[in-house]
Model the fold of this input.
Amino acid sequence: MRNIFSRKPFSLWALIASLYTTQFLGLSFFSVALVAILREQGASLEQVGSLYLIGMIGACRFLWAPLVDRVRFSPRIGHFRGWLLLMQGLLVMVLCFMASLDVAVDFSTIYLLCIIMAICGATQDIATDGLVCSLLAREERGIGNGIQTAGGFFGFMIGAGLVLMVYPDLGWGKAVMILAAGTMFTLVQVFLLNENKFQSKIQYRAKDEPAWRAAARLINFWAQPHAVRWVAMLLLFPAGITLASSLLTPALVDSRWSLEQIGLTVNILGSALGVVSSLAAGWMISRLGRGAVMPYCIIMQVLSICAVLTITSAHTSKPVVIAATLVHFWGYVPSVTMLTTLMMDNTSAASPSTDYTVQFSLYQFFSMGLAGLGMGMAGRVGYNSMLYVAIALALLAGVIAKFYLAAGGPRNRRNLYASLKCPSGAGAYGTAEQQKEKGMSCCR
Done:
């Protein structure tokens, strides 16, 4: 790991961790902490429930991802750095303003600010993914996505856990200012980033690409060779653990665990172990390779699902439930890290933000639908029956992964798609000579 880390300055790795942490601060805040705070203040269930609709904004961010790829700031500011400075600055201002409001009487204003936060956070996510896809080499992406997943868990711990813990003592204003301070810290890191220093690492830069072509990438991405095989991998590989994870919290509630116990076990202890597991999985992927780590991911999937099955099979003693929950989180995370690494492999250097976001959005929509369907079916046939289905899906994921990798997977090449071959071959952006004329470069 040390050798892989040394290829990039520590400040860049720290920035990646910080960006993915703050990305989840806002999401976890209004989906968990704000829900609890508003309900405690006497807000109606209709008002509280409307907060969950804001989460759909992030799932739809693929719609404006081409804008982030196309609109570039001055070379001095940097392409993705410019977007990150703008979005992080807006997030800090929104949070500072939100801290000055009264959560009990200013619900409409706070709700509007949450929508603005969701848009800014989603756009920051697009720019972050574009930056990371562009700057990390293939062998560095396992570590990069391990950091991404760990940052998500850490951001969740702060936004959903820490804020709720300090709210009774500090009050609304100071609790929200914790989020503002964390976002401001990341803003300073982005300000210190010299994106141009890494510009030579980027394979292609289309200077005058038509707007219609940038937007058409949302569709053309799925017209690439072997797209059907990749869609099957993208949707079915994490299906089993997604189904099991959606049943964990309802199962704990039905086991008569208090919300405080669930919050500590799932949001704090589980997330903390998720950080460690994601970093370990990222190191393994970078050190050993995708194919070598894939069997580990499948084994961990089955183990993770069986851990939830232990909880639903009337084993409700506290030590057993805590141990099973921690095992679930440890086993859940490697597959997420693997999947996001493969998503990054499936991006072109001409439109990294769009390519990554359109994949993640499809995965996110499918996971949300599967989680909802799973909970609904569990109400009819029981938790255990759905968890057996989850185990079957995990085993199917192993078969799909085997065929995906055997057929070439993301291919051990600098750019996945044949449409962006270098230095020979013609595709969506033409031959190497045509790419050079259009202002594209092949630098790796």
In short: The chain has two domains: 1-202, 214-444. The mean pLDDT is 81. The two ends are 22 Å apart (CA to CA).
